[in-house]
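WARN no homologs supplied; continuing
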Amino acid sequence: MNWPLLIKQTRERLGETQEQFAKRFAVTTNTVSRWETGTYQVSLDAVDWLLQYAESREVKCCPRCGGKGIVLEESQEADKAVEGDKP
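OK structure emitted
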């Protein structure tokens, strides 16, 4: 899974700035930026919380993302991210 893309697109679909998102997660804005660029790896616990939060805000989900409340942009980059998860 392309976690940086997932985090950025989820934040954007929630309509939150990096600053708002950082406050929600109790991290710095720099940390959110680093998650979105892949400089820092987000914990699976944080991803789980993010998915639950997005779902509670009724962010639409797609089957390609496991129905977890996230819609990845339809792009070659998103396709590569999904393909990269295959063993």
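The first helix runs from residue 3 to 13.
OK
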